[in-house]
Amino acid sequence: MKLYAEWFSKECGLECSENLSRTDRFVLYKTGKVIWVNHGMGSPSLSILLAEMLKIMHHAKAEDVKFIRVGTSGGVGVEPGTVVITTGAMNGELTDKYVQWINGKKVERDTWLDEDLRKELIAVAAEKKIPVEAGITLCADDFYEGQMRLDGFFCEYKADDKFDFLNKIYEKGVRNFEMECTCFASMTYRAGVKAAIVCVAMLNRMEGDQVNIEHDQYIEYEERPFRVVTALIRRQLGY
């Protein structure tokens, strides 16, 4: 995250702050009107970070705030290197809800991402000739079994089960896996914040479970969401 913040500050001629986080759990850098933070792995970690960032925005009296999550993901029926811009978030039950347990009770919250922001990001990716696809993102609760991988320590299903599942979710519009989207899409929607999710597919899960590309190619793929998002930020803020 520090690398991206410094890269953006250099491109835009802005000062990059030092790490403003007071803990070792997260990092936070500020470049002009843009804040760069990491959120860890999975919805529990993300939920903490989002709650803190929403409080910061509230106390700063920030207006017209936008949150954009960038990262890597496992593609479903898309070529490696494709940037997937999320149209909707799906949980492991294949519904568009973020599930919480509060006071011993199951609470299901709606998930929603801003359509206009998504369209703007898709247009920017197309302009920069970065392969892009819009689709649903499935939020798994873990990296292995929840994503039907065959290479984990535990695996109580067969390859046929995996491909049946992948084909099923593909038909429902799913184009990638990660582990945060329902939380992100629910909390931002609940807070009234426009939000988007931009993740590159590092592999096509229809073809395997492990990323098998050269290091330089990995880095180039990993930078694609950043390039799309920063281009839009610069356009909107005039940097």
UniProtKB/TrEMBL annotation:
It comes from Necator americanus. Substrate binds at Q147, R149. PANTHER family: FI09636P-RELATED (PTHR43691:SF11), URIDINE PHOSPHORYLASE (PTHR43691). Belongs to the PNP/UDP phosphorylase family. One of its GO terms (cellular component) is cytosol. It comes from the Eukaryota. GO terms for biological process: nucleotide catabolic process; uridine catabolic process. Gene3D superfamilies: Nucleoside phosphorylase domain (3.40.50.1580). InterPro entries: Nucleoside_phosphorylase_d, Nucleoside_phosphorylase_sf, Uridine_phosphorylase_euk. This is Uridine phosphorylase. GO terms for molecular function: uridine phosphorylase activity. Phosphate binds at R25, R69, V70, G71, T72. Residues 17-234 form the Nucleoside phosphorylase domain.
